[in-house]
Amino acid sequence: MSHSLNTNVSGNDFKASLFRKKSIADIIQHSTEGDGAANGMRRTLTVVDLTALGIAAIIGAGIFSTIGQASFHGGPGVVFLFIFTAIACGFSAFCYAEFASQLPVSGSAYTYAYASLGELLAWVIGWDLLMEYAIGNIAVAISWSEYFMSLLKGYGISFPPYFATDYLTAVRGHEAVREVLSHGVAFADLATKDISSAQVTAYTAFETAPRIFGLPMIANLPALGVVILVTWVVYIGIQESKRVSNLMVLLKLFVLALVIALGAFYVKPANWTPFMPNGVSGVLKGVSGVFFAYIGFDAISTTAEECKNPQRDLPRAMMYALVICTVLYILVALVLTGMVPYTKLGVADPLAFVFGPDGAHVNWIAGVIAVSAVIALFSVLLVFQLGQPRIWMAMSRDGLLPKIFSELHPKHRTPWFSTIVTGVLVGVPCLFMNLTEVTDLTSIGTLAAFLLVCIGVLTMDPRRPGVEGQFRMPYIDSRWIFPAIVLVTVGVVYAMSPESITGFLHDFRHPEWDVLKHRLPLLAYLIGIVWLLVLSFRHRLSLIPVLGCFTTGYLMTELGWVNWTRFGVWLAVGLAIYFLYSYRHSKLALTKNTMSSAGVIFLTITSLLTFSARAGVVPERTPSGILLDSSWKRSVYDFSVKNSLHPSWGLAHSERDYQVAAELLKSEGKVVDKDVLFAAAFLHDIGGLPPFSKAGVDHAIRSVEIAKPMLEKWGFPSSKWPGVKDVILGHTYYGPKPSSDLGVAFREADVLDFMGSIGIARILAVTEEGPKPSAILEPGVEMLMRFRREFPLMLTTPAAKAMGRSRAREMDEFFLQLKRESFGGRVL
């Protein structure tokens, strides 16, 4: 059927469709469709395997290269940056862990955003994760190639430089060397003119490369080769991937332990003084490199469908991996800055350097470090190549990518097409792309994903009851604590580096674009913090995700205007793909009609502005006019909006029950306790909905268990709780009758909601498809006929009986017309 349509889509429908969400129940159901021994992904990963995957992803290029540049700028004080970055990642890890426990499916941050922020922002995160995994893997593959070539060189094995250098590096190196040579400098004297050995290698590669039609044939073949190898390992299955990863993690940890233990004997404490030679600003210069060293812990969550116990093991593995790697990073940083002065650490291979001629003169360990670097980077490639296909698989399940992206290999049970596409998208650019162009882009994309995951957790009610077996981060009210943290942070920054604040203010007194553009990320961050302070005060947001936004947002400001520009271009390309394909093919599409491109662009901008302005704000009235005149009512309604998503027992059903029960009581001249009715109406079915339902426990009893602690926290009058309990326990058709007039009215309102036109709609909305097409309607129609016979007999009050007779007539007319249209009664 064609998806191209007319332009008669209303702006409101379009705005709603941009932020349409998938319920937690739907996400879990879709992930398990066909899940079995024959069709599903194999669940083989334990907490040890997951922790190993996290360590494999985190410990890579960061500890073997970028730690040197960070130490060069910050001195021994770089350990504070590692601690700060670990704390920032820790806040995000808590948010990932909570989502991963509730949604143990592939897709990582993309899936979490779909459930909490809506489709458009979910797509943005999915597109960001492509930067983290695919583009980040390009950087790792290029780094692996450099270490691999150094290892071969150490064993006397030569390899043509034009087949181990990317094209951009060769061109730039050739231009730099040729410029110096043009001034009469001898080739042997290039080192005296600030020409590095890497530039000389690039020049040689360009000069000696074979040419076809005058074009030099330059390509990074080792990088391509390792990508092909990793793609094959991932393609054949998770069992094989985890064995390779676990083995390499053990080797890496052994080598790092050796470096720390051996290096400790060569530490000179005098090298740690001064501890922060370049102040706070010097330490912060290493933000990009240090954060790059932490990228990867979130990759654990992409393997949720292959975990034996994802709710328990995913959160634990994330925390274990983050803590282990942070301790290792701090120890390595202290050893490096203690063995040699920090001013000597601005090299690409700092671990090997400190044991070389300029350091401890322990030359044999340099070869060991080279081998470990090759192993470390290979394991990072393995984990990222494992994660990206599973994100595409999740997006394909939702219709945002073609169906082939979610197809599993019949033998290996892996997303075969997604794996191959990932290999191509990583392998081909490795041949010609430069390392510098992709590293920072990876960091900003990952930070954006972390930030949106934290925001996603903030949209959930932090005081909702926990579900047995699921991880829940502790709730800490941020209303007063977060402002205090902001004030203390500003005070500390001003005390340690006053020029950072005065310089920022000074730049705005000279509004030249070339100056101001570099301050825009920080200005946007400060505006966001003010907004977050307001929301924290008004809605008592949970402190941990608030601090996640606070810290990751700041790290993004340190990545520079150029990276923000590239990030903006990347997002623009992603949004173009979304509106040209994904929006039309989404399984949550509200309509199959589209609108003009100009209308899409206009409504997208206005929708984003509206979403930003209304985020975290609860309306004053419900759609049917129920007044939300207290903070506890707003909390109950906000909770119901986010969790009562069932098509038949969801938010609309609760609102109808409230209105009908109130009408029944008024018709009999009885007083309506609106507080009791409101609390009971919007919470009476929550115990039967995922993730709150509990096997073997009646949904009314479970609803009471959930409602009581929540209402206490939200400030509901405790004296009215017995009335709420009576209404909830008495609303079921099969249970004991309620003792209060309100309970009787609510029970009859609940019965009436399964009669008439609304009852027909509710039943057919949840009717499962039969074993054959002719049976599609039968389960629902049979249930409707039973309700028509039995439910009028449950009504006791005159007003309810009168309303029941009217609705019964509507059902009779429906059955009669259905029989006429079913040609002989195949359905009836």
Characterise the protein shown here:
The protein is mainly alpha-helical and about 850 residues long. The chain has three domains: about 35-150 and about 225-460 and about 550-555, Amino acid/polyamine transporter I (Up-down Bundle); about 165-215, no CATH class; about 630-820, Orthogonal Bundle (Hypothetical protein af1432). It contains 34 helices and two strands. The protein has helices spanning about 10-20, 25-30, 45-60, 60-75, 80-100, 110-115, 120-155, 165-180, 195-210, 220-235, 240-265, 280-285, 285-290, 310-340, 350-355, 365-395, 415-430, 435-460, 480-495, 500-505, 515, 520-540, 545-555, 560-585, 595-615, 630-645, 650-665, 675-685, 700-715, 720-730, 740-750, 755-765, 780-790, 800-820; strands at about 210, 215. Strands 1-2 form a two-stranded antiparallel sheet. A hairpin with a 2-residue loop joins strand 1 (about 210) and strand 2 (about 215). The longest helix is centred in the N-terminal third of the chain and has 36 residues, at about 120-155. It starts with 10 loop residues before the first helix and ends in a 7-residue tail after the last helix. Mean pLDDT is about 75; it is low at about 1-10, about 35-40, about 465-470, about 590-615 and about 770-775.
In terms of topology, how is this protein built?
Layout: H1 11-18, H2 24-32, H3 47-58, H4 61-74, H5 78-102, H6 108-116, H7 119-154, H8 167-181, H9 197-208, E1 211-212, E2 215-216, H10 221-236, H11 238-264, H12 279-284, H13 287-292, H14 310-339, H15 350-354, H16 364-397, H17 416-430, H18 435-458, H19 478-496, H20 498-507, H21 513-516, H22 520-539, H23 543-557, H24 560-585, H25 597-614, H26 631-643, H27 651-667, H28 674-683, H29 699-714, H30 721-730, H31 741-752, H32 756-765, H33 778-790, H34 798-821
Antiparallel strand pairs: 1-2
Helix pairs in contact: 1-25, 3-11, 3-14, 3-16, 4-14, 5-14, 5-18, 5-23, 6-7, 6-18, 7-10, 7-16, 7-17, 7-18, 7-24, 8-9, 10-16, 10-17, 11-14, 11-16, 16-17, 18-23, 18-24, 19-20, 19-22, 19-23, 22-23, 26-28, 27-28, 27-31, 28-30, 29-30, 30-31, 31-34, 32-33
